[in-house]
Amino acid sequence: MTRLYLIIWVVLLVGCQREDSDIIEPIDVIVAETETFFDSHFIGKTTDVNGNAIEDVQINISDDRDYTTEKGIFLFNNTKTNSSGALIHLHKNDYYDQYVFVPKAANQFSNLNVVLRKKAILWFSIVQRQMNCH
Q1: How far apart are CA 58 and CA 77, in angstroms?
Q2: Most Cβ neighbours (<10 Å): which of 36, 37, 38, 122?
Q3: Domain ranges of the chain
Q4: pLDDT, tens digit, for every residue of 11-34?
């Protein structure tokens, strides 16, 4: 019986490590060189799956970086984008990173609502019972 509990524990441990492993390497985006614009504007709000605002989310657009307010709001004015659009990267510890592509972002004001999912922490406890066989 102890051997069965050990096998179940190993299977759960290996399965959880694969599911919960989060690759935090940046995604390389290759975009053909296009005309660069400096007058793209972005405003948005970050929330969790329940609609609650998330504070201090790091927002990256091109070379610009900012953080959301206590109400989850972010604002970028005159952000460098190209004519194909802009890739927005949102990051906060304990949440999955989110990437949003906004096509044709040049010369316009883009309003975004982004939902971040919290990473799940799974705890397993193995209860071993001693069986007395006589």
Answers
A1: 16
A2: 37
A3: 1-22+119-134, 27-115
A4: 555 555 444 455 566 666 555 555
C-alpha 110/C-alpha 44 separation (Å) is 8
Q: In CATH, what number does 27-115 get? A: 2.60.40.10
In whole angstroms, how large is the CA radius of gyration of the chain? 22
H/E stretch holding 35: none
E strand or H helix at 17: helix 2-20
More confident residue, 123 or 118: 118
CA distance 35 to 105: 12
- Residue that has been written with the tokens 């970028």 in this structure: 76
Query: What is the predicted pLDDT for the residue at 30?
Result: 57
